[in-house]
């Protein structure tokens, strides 16, 4: 390394230099059940129609009008009232980053139950904020109400995240407990509903009752993970603050057009989600019947399961061409836990055939 390069690198924050970039596992040629994608493509005739629509987009212009139309269409899709605020992100990952930036001042705290979505803590770290993780109950991964309320009282968090359903545990926490946590929280509370297409409940009523509650959703699990559209719903006064931090053209006009196309064909995606929910129940029952595997019930498109040796099972499955995620190292409560994304019926059948050979 040249001196000049070393000198320049030394100006980058030491904590950034010490950090690791988010790693996506290589997945060419394997059954990909690792990161909660919708495994279904659009039918060929809709793929062609999408291609035509994208071909007609004026990509010489910065996006603005189509993204505004997408924002309106997403509000209608979610069924929120016209006065509700909305802001769009390049995936909900970007919204988490913007929310963190909005509250980033010395001493501010971000709080979330753990284990949960790792990006909450990562973004708090990037802004050098305090992150308080409150362990879930060990056996059923329910919220520990007393611990959550005590942590809120002690740390007065500016931002609380509740992943609903939770990643990676897949469950929906008790609504009455959430209501009491929301009532006690002095700052913003974000209900992260990334897995809403697979869940039996949502938080729109909660949001209507509490102006400091925001609901964050994404089109990723709907079937557009590659398109990168997340959205944040909530009181206009709050959303307006996030809007000030949003890079003006963060959502590409092609992404907006693809998302509008998908909303025009929402029934296709709803049918895919229905298949995935039914498959989730089939996979759950099969896992439950396997000696040495303990799955937890899920309301997402993934199932968390404990095995005797998660590292060995993960590696053996991978060698047999099935890629899942070994989440054991993410939190002590996840010791020997694997997270299995629900795939197509054929992919799930393959998983269920291979798994007993890998335990
Ligand atoms: N929230 C949760 C709980 C997630 O699990 C994920 C992705 N796995 C996201 C948000 C981010 O989704 P995206 O950036 O694709 O919208």
From TrEMBL:
* NCBIfam families reported in the protein's UniProt record: hisC
Entry-annotated residues carrying N6-(pyridoxal phosphate)lysine: 221
How does the record describe its quaternary structure?
Answer: Homodimer.
Q: What is the name of this protein?
A: Histidinol-phosphate aminotransferase
Q: Which UniProt keywords apply?
A: Amino-acid biosynthesis, Aminotransferase, Histidine biosynthesis, Pyridoxal phosphate, Transferase
Similarity comment text for this entry: Belongs to the class-II pyridoxal-phosphate-dependent aminotransferase family. Histidinol-phosphate aminotransferase subfamily.
* Cofactors demanded by this protein: pyridoxal 5'-phosphate
What's the top EC group for this one? Answer: transferase
Cross-referenced InterPro entries = Aminotransferase_I/II_large, HisP_aminotrans, PyrdxlP-dep_Trfase, PyrdxlP-dep_Trfase_major, PyrdxlP-dep_Trfase_small
UniProt GO molecular function: histidinol-phosphate transaminase activity; pyridoxal phosphate binding
């Amino acid at each position: 390394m040249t001196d000049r390069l070393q000198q320049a690198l030394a100006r980058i924050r030491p904590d950034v230099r010490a950090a690791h970039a988010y790693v996506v596992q290589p997945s060419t040629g394997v059954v990909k059940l690792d990161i909660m994608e919708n495994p279904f493509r659009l039918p060929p005739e809709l793929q062609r129609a999408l291609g035509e629509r994208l071909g007609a987009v004026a990509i010489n212009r910065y996006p603005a009008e189509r993204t505004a139309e997408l924002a309106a269409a997403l509000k209608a899709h979610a069924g929120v009232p016209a006065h509700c605020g909305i802001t769009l992100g390049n995936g909900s990952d970007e919204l988490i980053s913007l929310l963190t930036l909005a509250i980033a001042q010395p001493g501010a705290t971000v709080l979330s139950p753990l284990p949960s979505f790792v990006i909450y803590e990562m973004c708090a770290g990037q802004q050098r904020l305090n992150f308080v993780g409150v362990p879930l109950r060990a056996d059923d991964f329910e919220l520990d109400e007393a611990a959550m309320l005590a942590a809120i009282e002690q740390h007065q968090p500016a931002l609380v995240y509740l992943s609903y359903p939770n990643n990676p545990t897949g469950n929906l926490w008790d609504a009455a407990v959430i209501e009491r946590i929301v009532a006690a929280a002095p700052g913003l509370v974000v209900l992260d509903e990334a897995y809403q297409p697979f869940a039996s409940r949502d938080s729109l009523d909660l949001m209507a009752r509490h102006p400091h509650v925001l609901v964050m959703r994404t089109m990723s699990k709907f079937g557009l993970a590659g398109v990168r559209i997340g959205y944040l719903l909530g009181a206009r006064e709050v959303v307006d603050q996030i809007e000030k931090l949003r890079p003006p053209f963060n959502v590409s006009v092609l992404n907006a057009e693809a998302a509008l196309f998908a909303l025009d064909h929402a029934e296709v995606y709803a049918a895919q989600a229905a298949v995935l929910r039914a498959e989730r129940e089939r996979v759950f029952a099969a896992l439950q019947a396997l000696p040495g595997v303990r799955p937890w019930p899920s309301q997402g498109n993934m199932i968390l399961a404990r095995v005797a040796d998660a590292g060995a099972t993960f590696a053996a499955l991978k060698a047999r061409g099935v890629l899942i995620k070994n989440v054991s190292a993410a939190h002590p409560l996840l010791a020997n836990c694997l997270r299995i994304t629900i795939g197509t019926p054929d992919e799930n059948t393959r998983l269920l055939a291979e798994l007993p050979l890998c335990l």
